[in-house]
């Protein structure tokens, strides 16, 4: 075995409608280099919506590549983390859009799986510390399941002000995006857990 214990791979999402060629190339390269340099454990941070995503197939392709390397090389140990919707998505301009889509795309009272960005690092650290327990596992990382109203209440309590929101008609136009399909499947999963 090589001298590197673990590598945590977290790649920037290029954005809706933007090509993810660089993300795909970086993800595959990171996995290939981990194999080449005999890294003992690779953790790839994907996305909870990866299996259903039509906007960013790169994450699924990277996941498939990591799994394929593991199947072909017994010494290649991996774990895939799939973080849910980030709390941080409600900050700034993106937050105004997220809040509008969240409110207009789901039935009232529907909960959505959410997680804080810092929590992913904590989970990755725990996975590394656990040794072999999570080799070959795909793990959803979710901190809370909240309705739009609950998100707003938490935001107001923590930030001292309600979430900002773009006009509803803009949300209606955007509702056809991946957020709508993602929110339906994530909301259903959240109601079961």
Features:
single chain; 193 residues; alpha/beta; Rossmann fold; 4-stranded parallel β-sheet; 3-stranded mixed β-sheet; 7 helices; 16% strand; elongated
3D structure, described in words:
One of its GO terms (cellular component) is nucleus. The chain has 193 residues and is α/β, with parallel strands linked by helices. It has one domain: NAD(P)-binding Rossmann-like Domain (Rossmann fold), CATH 3.40.50.720. 48% of the residues lie in helices and 16% in strands. The strands form two sheets. The protein has a four-stranded parallel β-sheet, with helices on both faces. Helix 2 links the parallel strand 2 and strand 3. Helix 3 packs across helix 6. The radius of gyration is 18 Å and the shape is elongated. The protein starts with 5 loop residues before the first strand and ends with a helix.
